[in-house]
Amino acid sequence: MVIKAVLIDIDNTILDFNKSAEISIINTAKHYGIILPEDYFEVFLRVNDLLWKKLENGEIIKQDIYNNRFNMIFGELGISFDGPLFEEAFRKEMRNTAIPVEGAKELLSYLSEKYAVYTASNASRLQQETRLKKNGFDKYISGMFTSEELGFQKPAKEFFALCCEAIYPITPSEIIVIGDSVDADIIGAKNFGLKTIWFNFNNITYETYSFTDYHVNSLSEIKTIL
Prior knowledge:
The chain is of the alpha/beta class. It has helices at 17-32, 40-56, 62-77, 83-95, 104-114, 125-134, 147-150, 157-167, 182-192; strands spanning 5-8, 116-121, 143-146, 175-179, 195-199, 214-216.
């Protein structure tokens, strides 16, 4: 396997979105004097996953997430507060909260010495750029691809096609994708013909892992593949 470039996802691959989001919600709630019930983060994850899945399926646009996410969450939790106002403050907190996934720095350092490393994300460039810089991860990155700039969301083939066009003369056969989302990162990349490494961030068990070329449960395992 000849690999010259790596496309790596950010959230829950090299930056821990779950931990960062939890801290950001707590800080934003404190700012507005909102008391959160015990199950607030469980509801957040469920609503957030639902909305992002709809985005990936082309059913909604990103602004719909920003407009509706916390209205839906607060509706379930019985909290009376302006959802979009909370959303704006939450995303500002997120830009300043960048908890790395265990082994992320070591992996990026290792990969950047052997390959051109690019990030591929459906989140906003400002948020991701700021968070990567906070950890010093930007020095390992050759470039960043975001759906808002490319005009297509992962898992669309067009997203990966535009990434490959930008990386040329490195060819698709010389590129491998690393990510935690089976649908957005792995199946999306496979549908375009790219090699993949699925990072099982959430410890999900499948009967078969035929949807990916490789699968790992920790980032350190990737060093045995690449």
